[in-house]
Structures are given as structure tokens and as C-alpha cells.
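The instructor's notes for this session suggest beginning with a concrete chain rather than abstract definitions. Hand out the sequence below and ask the class to guess, before any prediction is shown, which regions might be ordered.
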Amino acid sequence: MNQQEIYILSEDGLDIGWLRYGYFWDQIPFMNLLWIDEPYRGSGFGRQAVQHWEQAMQAMGHKQVMTSSMANEEAQHFYRKLGYRDSGCLLPDNEPLEIFFTKAL
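After discussion, reveal the predicted structure:
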């Protein structure tokens, strides 16, 4: 992984996914995309990527991180297992409910 706003996940020299983040309200690190290629899902790579990102954000002095998931996506359960808590939601027109999650570092 590199130290930019996009982390590339690699395994045995192959790029297998990425984690992208920005800043909510220009202050709180907000993970807006985590992608693991299908053959590598369920093997702990996502967990490792999120934990690496959280540690990097903490090292930068951040006390909290955020992410979100649509209510019809399995990702919400993944984030809860990693200690994220439901912190609000948004109901966009003609889309599923978007759930926001926060985690104290």
C-alpha cells in the first residue's frame, strides 16, 4: 500500500483491490470505497486494508474515521464487525438508504 488517498492492495505481485478515502466536512477521514477482487474476498484482505488505513489516520492525528454503506449491501455488516457504529442515514431519491458509520480511533 502507498501513503496517498488511494491504497492499492497487492498479493504476490498482483493488484487485488483498493481503498479510497477523502474527508467528510474537510476534516474527518471518510473511506468512500473498499474493493477486493472476488477471488480474494473473505480472506482477510479487506480487514487488513481497513486496519492499515485506520492506523495511518491515527498516526496523522485523527481521532475518528467514517464510512458508509447502502442498506442493501453486505458491507454494513463488515464495518460493524470492525467496530464501526451506526451514526445516521440519508435517503436519496430512488436509492436505498445510505447508512453512515463512525469509529473512534
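Then share the key points. The mean pLDDT is 94. The longest strand covers residues 14-24.
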